[in-house]
Amino acid sequence: MLRVDYLAVAGLPPVSFEVAPHECLAVEGPSGAGKTRLLRAIADLDAADGFVYLDGEERREVPAPEWRRRVRYASAEPAWWAPRVREHFPAAAKLERLVLSVGLEPKLLDRPISELSTGERQRLGLVRAVADEPRVLLLDEPTSALDAQATALAEELIRFQILAGRMVVLVSHNSGQVVRLAHTRLLLPGNGKAAVVERVAA
Q1: Which of 2, 38, 49, 89 is deepest in the core (most CB within 10 A)?
Q2: What is the pLDDT of residues 2-36, one digit of tens each?
């Protein structure tokens, strides 16, 4: 279980919610409402008061690298720190299968990052996020640069993560995507108003 208790992200009233295994919570709100800041705070990438628990352990009780391995933040434009794609991935027998699952050829793993399109980088960023099977996925606009076909493949990979028992927190401006993937939604109204948690109507 991922439990967020009174997490005080800069510019937001304290936020509380829970996400169980096999569930996806969508975070929605206008631009500037604090969606990305919230995900980064849960991942312990940015300082924030309040509490975040994963399976009963609070984030400050776990070494930061281990917390971020279990609670994985994936931005819309992933960071790359080495020249070639493969250098960013753990050695895993299933890596090529994951790359194929999002509609890419495994040979891209041996290409320079500089030669990839924005959409290719975004899909590879999603693969990198799931490759070592974190407990929680914090996905920030994971399909914003993708066409309809690539989006469908990425959503299928996310859906598989949910079915496999992972907890997903998804930021998306795509209302159809929220309906397809999420069980609950966290609405961040902005303007200092309190967040609201509600079920997603199928």
Answers
A1: 38
A2: 999 999 998 889 999 999 999 999 999 998 899 99
Q: Are 102 and 82 in contact (CB under 8 A)?
A: no
What are the structural domains of the chain? 2-199 (3.40.50.300)
Q: Which residue has the tokens 């009174």?
A: 6
pLDDT value of position 104: 97
Which tokens belong to 41? 């705070």
Q: HSE on the CB side for 65, CA within 13 Å?
A: 0
The pLDDT assigned to 202 comes to 63
**Among positive and negative, which fits the CA dihedral 115, 117, 119, 122?**
positive
Report the C-alpha gap between 6 and 8 in whole angstroms: 6
pTM: 0.95
Contacts 24+ apart (CB under 8 A), 29-34: 29/187, 29/188, 29/189, 29/190, 30/189, 30/190, 32/190, 33/188, 33/189, 33/190, 34/9, 34/10, 34/188, 34/190
Q: What is the pLDDT of residues 88-134, one digit of tens each?
A: 998 777 899 999 999 999 999 999 999 999 999 999 999 999 999 99
SS3 144: coil
Instruction: Bin 103: left if φ > 0, else alpha if -120 < ψ < 50, else beta.
Output: left
The answer to whether the beta carbons of residues 22 and 121 sit under 8 Å apart is: no
Contact 43, 138 (CB under 8 A): yes
